[in-house]
Design a protein that fits this description.
InterPro entries: Pvc16_N. This is Pvc16 N-terminal domain-containing protein. Pfam families: Pvc16_N (PF14065). The chain has two domains: 191 residues, no CATH class; 38 residues, no CATH class. The protein starts with a helix and ends with a strand. 14% of the residues are buried. The chain is built from five helices and 13 strands. Helix content is 20%, strand content 38%. The chain is elongated and about 100 Å long. By secondary structure, the protein is α+β, with helices and mostly antiparallel strands.
């Protein structure tokens, strides 16, 4: 997971025909003297918080590899992040205030229609972030290469809004806050573990020739599929 790449591709989804619709910038660094945004959009997109999703705290260290049906064993469980992103209408020129509000409305409208997204991190020119509608056009094999995240709106009270802008060190701007959930973080693969396909079971049967009356036999329990594709167990 590359957060910077995801945010860059993600910001371009809102208005794909206008590459300068949103400026990715740390809003805490803006001040009334900044002028580098005047020739671009009045909408800024900033990461204002990153935290771990506690509801997904205890994750297994094994993860199925969909390509060869084996398992990857990781040194540590995968962490899942919740990234808070703030869209703000920023304009030095007071005459562009309504223009900024109109663009902020475009952001709100977009997320009202789209809250599920899919991404693929591969070669630099092939990184993708797709809406669910774009994802649905992919083939089943292509879909397996994507991970997903959701975007949910966050409603803040006046007190919470005041606290947020205070720690950002800025004056209030018309804005909307969203949470990107959940982005997995997993780096090093320790080893590849093959899936279990056969189990050997030892059974004890009655043996009339043995004084103890016990006879050890072995059977192999294998996993297969019936005509409907359902996984079944069978002894050999």
């Amino acid at each position: 997971m590359d957060l910077g790449v995801i945010l860059d591709r993600f910001s371009k989804l809102i208005d794909p025909n206008n590459s300068s619709f949103i400026n990715l910038v740390n809003i805490a660094t803006l001040s009334d003297g900044d002028e580098f945004l005047e020739q671009k959009s009045s909408i800024t997109m900033s990461v204002v918080n990153i935290q771990e999703d506690k509801t997904m705290k205890n994750q297994p260290v094994f993860q199925r590899n969909i390509i060869d049906n084996n398992f990857n064993r990781f040194a540590h469980p995968t962490k899942y992040l919740v990234v808070s992103i703030l869209f703000a209408s920023y304009n030095i020129d007071p005459l562009k205030y309504l223009d900024g509000l109109g663009k902020l409305q475009t952001v709100i409208d977009f997320f009202q229609q789209n809250n599920l997204f899919f991404y693929k991190i591969s070669a630099p020119n092939k990184n993708e972030v797709l809406t669910s509608a774009q994802y649905s056009l992919k083939t089943e094999n292509e879909k397996d290469k994507y991970s997903k995240f959701t975007v949910l709106s966050v409603d803040l009270s006046l007190e919470q809004t005041n606290q947020m802008w205070s720690y950002l060190g800025s004056k209030y701007m018309p804005s909307v806050l969203y949470e990107m959930r959940v982005l997995p973080v997993q780096q090093d693969t320790v080893q590849v573990v093959k899936s279990i396909e056969e189990i050997k079971i030892k059974l004890w049967e009655n043996d009339k020739k043995d004084a103890a009356g016990l006879l050890e036999s072995s059977q192999n329990l294998k996993f297969g599929k019936d005509e409907n594709g359902k996984i079944i167990e069978k002894f050999e």
